[in-house]
Amino acid sequence: MMALNLQLDSFEGPLDLLLHLIDKSEIEITDIPIARITDQYLSYLHTMQELNLEFASEFLVMASQLLAMKSGLLLPRPIEMDIPLIDYEEDLDYDPRQALMERLIEYKKFKQLADDLRDREEKRNRVLTRPPENLTHLIPEVEPNPVEGVTLFDLLDAFRKALAKAQPDEYVAGIQRDEISVEGRMQEVLDLMIFNGGRVRFSELLGSFYRRSDIVVTFLALLELMKGKKVICLQDHLFDDILIEAQ
User: Fold this and answer.
1) CA–CA distance from 54 to each of 3, 11, 18, 49, 227 (Å)?
2) Name one Pfam family in it (predicted).
3) Is 115 found in the same domain as 157?
4) Which residue has the higher pLDDT, 238 or 222?
């Protein structure tokens, strides 16, 4: 059921009403006069009914608990008798207000915290702040990945396939080609890319070489160009030929 919301005093529940009655009577929570508080509590419930105010069932539950405590305190104390297994001293020390007192103390703590949070919210709502500034120019630019979509395993696989097709170094077919350095091969790759519009496929890059040493030098030259961010490697689909583009 929904919590009660009175037009006279807004009580959020039976504990809230009890706290109001206790504060109004200027008494301590630890010394609750059950008889007087019960009468006042029932009087409030009667007023609510006369005003046709709906209230939650927990108000009636608290009323029954107060009546039970009131009647328990009005009953005469049991006569102490020497009967085994019965602790009369414990029964005589029992105070039915103890549980209610602990609930009220705990409830009052949470109520105070709620009030403090509400005050902070109101203060925060009165603070005017500047609209957020555009700080996108402060975001560092992310450098492009030279192997976008291509892993090291893809490059090694392409290198492995090229070596498998290569002839041994001692085999010479056609015109003898002079040995070339990695730096020289890097320049050849860049020149070839310029000639082909800024891009070349890995298979085309190795197409004119038959010796394993030439393929190794070409592969090392490609890695150096990638490291220097002069080229990037792309692959549209898995196992596709690797495309090399100039940056």
Assistant:
1) 9, 12, 18, 8, 77
2) SMC_ScpA
3) no
4) 222
Last residue in a domain, options 84, 109, 125: 125
| Amino acid making up residue 159 | F
| Locus of tokens 């050849």 | 188
How many angstroms separate the CA atoms of 119 and 137, rounded? 38
CA 161/CA 165 separation, integer angstroms: 7
Strand 243-246, strand 231-234: pairing:
antiparallel
Both 177 and 106 in one domain: the answer is no
Q: Would residue 142 count as lying in a domain?
A: no
Residue 210: per-residue pLDDT: 61
Residue 84 confidence (pLDDT): 46
Three-class SS of the chain: CCCCCCCCCCCCCHHHHHHHHHHHHCCCHHHCCHHHHHHHHHHHHHHHHHCCCCCCHHHHHHHHHHHHHHHHHHCCCCCCCCCCCCCHHHHHHCCCHHHHHHHHHHHHHHHHHHHHHHHHHHHHHCCCCCCCCCCHHHCCCCCCCCCCCCCHHHHHHHHHHHHHHCECCCCCCCCCCCCCCHHHHHHHHHHHHHHCCCEEEHHHHCCCCCEHHHHHHHHHHHHHHHHCCCEEEECCCCCCCCEEEEC
Q: Which residue has the higher pLDDT, 6 or 241?
A: 241
The tens digit of pLDDT for each residue in 36-59 reads 777 777 777 777 666 555 555 666
